[in-house]
Write a structure and sequence with these properties.
- The protein has a domain of 58 residues.
- It starts with a helix and ends in an 8-residue tail after the last helix.
- It has four helices and no strands.
- By secondary structure, it is an all-alpha fold.
- The chain is 55% helix and 0% strand.
Amino acid sequence: MRRSHEQFAAAGVLALLSACASNPKVEPEREYRELPVAVAVGCVKDRPARPQTLLERFTDDEWSALAPGAMARSVEAQAGDRMNYSDRLDAATKGCREKGR
């Protein structure tokens, strides 16, 4: 009878060892990537550079020498530059508050 208890114990140990050795859990590989994340910031002190006006871009003689179409394109480009500047200025100063608020 003692022999059957030893055989039962040995069989139990073998069963436990075989359970541990079979089918190891495989973890999936992790892939790390950099992702841009928007972060709220306070007031930006570096304002974007102001675009040049037409008076700063052209002298009176240069402006007079331009064809009417070139003048119209210059005015249109100036308007686009000022709108872009306005958007950049708003984005840069969005975190600013006036004192006393």
